[in-house]
């Protein structure tokens, strides 16, 4: 895991919103080269943190699904 996803203050939706805002700012082209590089670097970090959060979520879903498949279940018939 990355430090961002281990941090209890990391929120995927907030990071994604920040990334979208950052992209819009960069697309406007009003920043200096140094500012653009700083924003780009921040964007890369946010992207990696979001990708890691998604990977972790996918692993959790896979684990839950496999636990469900391993348990004994009865087909749903819609009748009680």
Tell me what portion of residues adopts beta-strand conformation.
Answer: under 5%
- Judging from the principal axes of the Cα atoms, what is the shape? elongated
Radius of gyration, Cα only, in angstroms? 20 Å
Helicity, as a percent range: over 70%
Order of helices and strands: HHH
Q: Supply the number of helical segments.
A: 3
Distance between the termini: 45 Å
Q: How many beta strands in the DSSP annotation?
A: 0
Compute the average pLDDT. 85
Could you say which structural class the secondary elements and strand pairing correspond to?
A: mainly alpha
Q: For the report, how would you describe the main beta sheet? A: none
Spans with pLDDT under 50 lasting ≥5 residues?
Answer: 1-5
Oligomer: single chain
Write a structural description.
The protein has 80 residues and is mainly α. It has a domain at 33-67. Helices cover 74% and strands 0% of the residues. It contains 3 helices and no strands. It has helices at 3-6, 12-28, 33-70. α2 (12-28) packs antiparallel against α3 (33-70). The termini are far apart.
